Amino acid sequence: MDPIRNPYAPGAGQRPPELAGRDDQLAAFDVVLERVAKGRPERSIVLTGLRGVGKTVLLNTLRSAAVRKRWGTGKLEARPDQGLRRPLSSALHQAVRELGHPQPDETDHVLGVIRSFAQRDAPAGAKLREQWSPGIDAPAVRGRADSGDIEIDLVELFTDVGGLAQDLGKGVAVFIDEMQDLGPDDVSALCAACHEMSQSRLPVIVVGAGLPHLPAVLSASKSYSERLFSYQRIDRLTREGTDAALSLPAEDEDACYTVEALDALHAATGGYPYFIQAYGKAVWDRAPRSPITLDDVTVAAPEAEAELAVGFFGSRFERATPGERDYLRAMADAAVALAEQGGDPVDDIGSVPTADVAALLGKKPQSLSPARDALLKKGLIYSGERGKIAFTVPHFGKYLREQA
Predict the structure, then answer these.
(1) DSSP letter string over 239-261?
(2) In the structure, what pLDDT confidence band is assigned to residue 260 with cuts at 50, 70 and 90?
């Protein structure tokens, strides 16, 4: 098969040629955009799921939908070592520019508020040249969004940005990737600001994406967050979705798969979008002709697995210290032990008790808290319920057992 015509895209965050299995989320978001622009009540949105299920791709696709509606949009990626003020200021700066308000004075006022919000991040006593600037020409508006209390400031900022959008009958959407990495104060402020926008019927929404424990992070910040956001779990694709993700791009290039090849690819990928793209690319490059057969999948599978071992699994495993790696391997072994007890196949995305991990390592659970907490912060594991942990990466347990 011609590698130049290979349609698959296994890059991080790259949109696949066929965004299969996400029609419901796209349709629901179109409704949200229309309702918010008309001043009707709607909730902000939170997408959750494991790594490799396409949260970032879906987030970018939703942003494109908002742009087509002529909304103002901005995107940021949360980081554990960075506060919210600077990246959010840049995102809202872009959103205001996209709105294209016809009154320069109104636009400059809101841009000045954004600048004031951003510069409040500077340490006390910092000189003007030491203050970070979001690239805004308008002068900072003193006394607005610059109190130093992130919750007060964010509510004021969203209120002014929302008013600008409301003048035009449009809206503003802020897209936040890796939302679980926001600090506690920033999460609390974001919830408060979204709550105020909902009550005021101002057209500003937040669309966040993060790991499965993100709802628990939000709930711990504000009790009303359970009712504040529309939570949508993004999961692996069904067999039908897997077939579409593989077959439709191939058909556009005048190629197809046999049923046996699709059976094998669904079994190998588990329906995870990133894996589908990785296997699809490898199989295309190895197959001599169309239709792509089971033999082609068998030949190409080791190449796809090697690519995933380095770029998807290995890069994450390398971030862990030796002690943390022992903890990860013990989690993989604990999953096997649980499966054997129940007579079920190993499920590497299921939770395992922290007590079982400690028992396998021959240590007390309390002594393993530093390793567990570090892995949580690195985003390699998450805790969906008290006393249990799970991998954030599908098939990670299988990878660890094979490495051992």
Answers:
(1) HHHHHHHHHHHHHHTT--B-HHH
(2) very high
Joined together, the tokens standing for residue 282 give: 């490898």
Instruction: Give tens-digit pLDDT for 40-78.
Output: 989 999 999 999 999 999 999 999 999 999 999 999 999
Q: Are 378 and 79 in contact (CB under 8 A)?
A: no
Mark whether 46 and 171 lie in a shared domain: yes
Last residue of a domain, one of 260, 294, 314: 314
Say which residues have a Cβ less than 8 Å from residue 12's Cβ, sequence separation at least 6.
56
Sequence-separated (6 or more) residues with CB below 8 Å from residue 401: 332, 333, 336
Percent of the residues in the chain that have a pLDDT greater than 70, as a whole number: 95
- Where a domain ends, among 233, 262, 292? 233
The pTM of the full predicted model, rounded to 2 decimals, is: 0.91
Residues 158-203 pLDDT 10s: 999 999 999 999 999 999 999 999 999 999 999 999 999 999 999 9
Query: In degrees to the nearest 10, what's the CA dihedral of 359, 361, 364, 368?
Result: -130
Same domain, 290 and 334: no
Specify the number of domains making up the chain. Answer: 3
The DSSP symbol for 128 reads: G
Instruction: Let me know if 130 is exposed, middle or buried by CB neighbors in 10 A (0-12, 13-18, 19+).
Output: exposed
Is residue 6 in a domain?
no
